[in-house]
Amino acid sequence: MGGDNFMEALAEVRDRMGIARRAFEGVRGELARVVVGHDELIEQVFTALVCGGHCLLEGVPGLGKTLMVRSLAAVLNLSFSRIQFTPDLMPADITGTQMLTEDASGRKIFDFQRGPIFAHIVLADEINRATPKTQSALLEAMQEQNVTVSGKSHRLESPFMVLATQNPIEMEGTYPLPEAQIDRFFFKLLLKYPSREELGRIADLTTAAPLAALQKVLEADAILEIRAWVREVPIAEPVKDYAARLVLATHPDQEGRAPAAEKYVLYGSSPRGLQSLILAAKARALLAARPNVSFEDIRAVLPQSLRHRIILNLEGEAEGITAEKVLAEVVERVPEIA
To answer: How many C-beta neighbours within 10 Å does residue 159 have?
Structure first.
């Protein structure tokens, strides 16, 4: 009987891996029809979605961020909204507000009008252009998946994901996000400029006849189911310990620290970095139809999980050191088995 139960459990795991893999391949294949040159970015955003996290996207304007996010929502059959952040944007412009309206009998009543935050996928464009007060309203909704207006709570829909963008070049008139708020983002993703061949394909797609509408590949319930499966992916103790030692190696005052961290880092990654690292590695394994997390899975998700959680000191900034350089040395110095 015990053997039968084991075989049934094994068959269920294999079914899950196959379903998750096919779902991801379907999403990637459909998005490839309209999004050019962002294959890795699509995988990372989908990984964050099935982990229940949010993404901070950094890249110059015109690289197709809005197109990618809107297309992702269409393929997943999820609601989408875009918020353009500006210095005069108020918290109520995001969350919604109470409006005085008339009911069927003509009585005056206050009715809550939902803001653009009430969508499955929210694109927060140029988040660093809004004031800290408005930024905090968005980040509170991200953390709690809840909005409180006039003392009444309103639950956001699931799955819920925020993709916030920042322009790394133009910083005049911006309000940089505090480190504690940046830490709430699951991933920080960097958008690369397209290659010569990719530019040619972009020109073909955007100057020719429009393509047929995108096909829906997944539904909200399926995403939530995959999200539950991600957390059940096993991770061996040595692999978990490897992830923990990588995080500790980013701290300038911890045993096993990397020399670059000791010299150039003011503060290393928070415990949220470890949570992101392990969850993303589990999702990577599941989407690749592998039954457990490997050391390579941990290394593959390290940059996007930790790059925004490392604060450089004055010497590091003066010498042009980046978080990526510190993390590269961390990976080089930390052995898989202690």
So the answer is: 19
Fold of 233-333: Helicase, Ruva Protein; domain 3 (1.10.8)
338 residues of the chain, pLDDT tens digit each: 456 676 777 788 888 888 899 999 999 888 888 887 788 888 999 999 999 999 999 887 777 788 888 889 999 999 999 999 988 999 889 988 877 777 777 777 777 788 899 999 999 998 888 888 888 888 888 888 888 877 788 889 899 999 998 877 766 667 888 888 899 999 999 888 878 887 887 787 777 666 667 888 889 999 999 999 999 999 999 999 999 999 999 999 998 899 999 999 999 999 999 999 999 999 999 999 898 999 999 999 999 999 999 999 999 999 999 999 999 999 999 999 87
Question: 3-state secondary structure string, the chain?
Answer: CHHHHHHHHHHHHHHHHHHHHHHHHHHHHHHCCCCCCCHHHHHHHHHHHHHCCCEEEECCCCCCHHHHHHHHHHHCCCCEEEEECCCCCCHHHHHEEEEEEECCCCCEEEEEEECCCCCCEEEEECHHHCCHHHHHHHHHHHHHCEEEECCEEEECCCCCEEEEEECCCCCCCCCCCCHHHHCCCCEEEECCCCCHHHHHHHHHHHHCCCCCCCCCCCCHHHHHHHHHHHHHCCCCHHHHHHHHHHHHCCCCCCCCCCHHHHHHEEECCCHHHHHHHHHHHHHHHHHCCCCCCCHHHHHHHHHHHHHHHCEECHHHHHCCCCHHHHHHHHHHHCCCCC
CB 95 within 8 A of CB 130: no
Classify domain 2-221 at the CATH topology level: Rossmann fold (3.40.50)
Looking up tokens 């939530």, which residue turns up? Answer: 224
Map out the domains of the chain as residue ranges. 2-221, 233-333
* Cβ(123)–Cβ(81) below 8 Å: yes
d(CA 266, CA 59): 25
In the numeric block, which tokens belong to residue 65? Answer: 């961020």
